[in-house]
């Protein structure tokens, strides 16, 4: 998929997010706020060489600079029965959200937000392109966490594209509603 098609996918996701009140926006331009996410995207593109790289191309030595903020998800099942399992859940994310390695996305995300995450991850796999996602999380003390996320597809050992390499950098925002327009 070329970037113009990726822009269309992002526009569709953003239209759904706005219509449904999801606290997220997709960015196909990959204009990350954190340099590390841009570096990881460049690494993914190098390994992709015009296709989708295999999970095996990303060993922990290669991923070490990003490991604390990484997740690797694997889609299990098909259609409405598909679920995403966390194969890796980085230590920074574990500190913020709890340990989720081995657990399913639907065990972590609230029922009202689950459709937004499924739509995003499904789009990443279907497009076979990397994306940036900006998300907002409300915490009990009335502050907002802003997530800047890189997500890109990976092929499993059989060559099927059903894994996602993602890195999330989270920062505190002022206690005002997220600026999603």
Describe the structure.
- It is a single chain.
- With about 180 residues, this protein is an alpha+beta fold.
- It has one domain (about 5-175): Beta-Lactamase.
- It has 5 helices and 6 strands, in the order αβααββααβββ.
- The chain has helices at about 5-20, 35-50, 60-65, 90-95, 115-125, and strands at about 25, 70-75, 85-90, 130-140, 145-155, 160-175.
- A 6-stranded antiparallel β-sheet has the order 1-4-5-6-2-3, sandwiched between helices.
- Strand 4 (about 130-140) and strand 5 form a beta hairpin.
- Helix 1 packs antiparallel against helix 5.
- The two termini are about 25 Å apart.
- The model has no long low-confidence stretch (mean pLDDT about 85).
Placed side by side, the strands forming the largest sheet appear as 1-4-5-6-2-3
Q: What would you call the structural class?
A: alpha+beta
Give me the CATH fold name. Answer: Beta-Lactamase
Instruction: State the helical fraction.
Output: 25-40%
Largest sheet: 6 strands, antiparallel
Count the DSSP helices.
5
Mean pLDDT: 86
- Beta-strand portion reads 25-35%
Q: Assign an overall shape.
A: globular
Q: Give the SSE string.
A: HEHHEEHHEEE
CATH-defined superfamily: PAS domain
In brief:
The protein has helices at 3-20, 35-48, 60-63, 91-97, 114-127, and strands at 24-27, 70-76, 83-89, 131-138, 144-155, 161-173. The chain is of the alpha+beta class.
Task: List its traits.
181 residues, globular, alpha+beta, six-stranded antiparallel β-sheet, 5 helices, single chain, 31% helix
């Amino acid at each position: 998929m070329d970037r113009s098609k990726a822009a269309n996918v992002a526009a569709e996701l953003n239209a759904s997010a706005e219509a449904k009140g999801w606290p997220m926006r997709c960015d196909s331009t990959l204009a990350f706020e954190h340099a590390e996410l841009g570096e990881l995207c460049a690494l993914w593109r190098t390994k992709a060489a015009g296709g989708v790289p295999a999970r095996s191309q990303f060993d922990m030595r290669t991923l070490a600079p990003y490991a604390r903020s990484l997740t690797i998800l694997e889609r299990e099942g098909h259609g409405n029965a598909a679920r995403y399992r966390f194969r890796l859940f980085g230590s920074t994310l574990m500190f913020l959200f709890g340990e989720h390695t081995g657990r399913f996305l639907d065990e972590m995300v609230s029922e009202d937000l689950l459709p937004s995450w499924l739509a995003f991850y499904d789009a990443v796999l279907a497009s076979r392109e990397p994306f940036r996602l900006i998300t907002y999380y409300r915490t009990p003390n009335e502050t907002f966490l802003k997530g800047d996320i890189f997500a890109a597809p990976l092929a499993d050992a059989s060559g099927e594209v059903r894994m996602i390499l993602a890195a999330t950098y989270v920062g505190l925002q002022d206690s005002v509603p997220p600026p999603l327009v």
